[in-house]
Amino acid sequence: MSLTDKLSMLMARPGGDNAQKDDVPWWMRYAGRGVGTVGGFIAIILGLLNCISIVLLDVGCLIAGIWQMLAGFIVIVCEAPCCCFFIDYVQTLSDKMETRPYWNKAACYVGLSVPPFFMCFISMSTWFGSGLIFATGIIYGMMALGKKGSIEDMRTSAANLEAGSGQPTSAPRANLVTNEQPVSFTGVPVRN
């Protein structure tokens, strides 16, 4: 048994099917889960520091700190439910998020991380705490894009494009309409 198999067995969710459902590399899965877990804890701590800014009568940073702590808790619940085993609904929410596509997780994490920036832009704790949640969303977004093609596939595609044969319909040079006419400038309208 290899080291990666042992790590996968340790990181596997209890009660979940351990079959790999897609072709995302193992290191990217662990990076998303690790950055999400660590980033969630750091976001909670730095959100608490933002809440202390009420001493300076900065209500925007107080609301941003509360939002950041809530976002950090949600990310921890979704990525590491073992950290919150004392709350009943955590495993249910985590299982629901685990069945969702990666782009749903990416949109959720990016959507959770953006509002504190608008409320308390000058605070470094907002930048770092919410930035880690944003980075988790970016990692899941990259996982949603999928695996890159093999080098042979990319070479043949590039050769076909250079030769002009077999252009895919999604190429930037593909025509949208078969009967398109060139755009011409008719001049400035003349007043009567």
Can you give a write-up of this model?
By secondary structure, the chain is mostly helical. It has a domain at 26-145. The chain has eight helices and no strands. The chain has helices spanning 3-11, 26-51, 59-79, 90-99, 102-113, 115-119, 124-145, 151-163. The longest helix is centred in the N-terminal third of the chain and has 26 residues, at 26-51. It is flat, with a radius of gyration of 24 Å. The relative contact order is 0.13.
Key features of this structure:
192 residues; mainly alpha; 8 helices; 61% helix; 0% strand; flat; TVP18/Ca-channel_flower; transport; membrane; calcium; ion channel
Q: From the structure provided, what is the oligomeric state, counting identical versus distinct chains?
A: single chain
- Class from helix and strand fractions: mainly alpha
Number of helices: 8
The proportion of residues forming helix, as a percent range, comes to: 55-70%
Low-confidence stretches: none
Q: Please tell me what the overall shape is.
A: flat
Largest sheet: none
How far apart, in Å, are the first and last alpha carbons? 87 Å
The arrangement of helices and strands along the chain is HHHHHHHH
Total beta strands = 0
Rg measurement, Å: 24 Å
Q: Report the β-strand fraction as a percent range.
A: under 5%
Mean pLDDT: 81
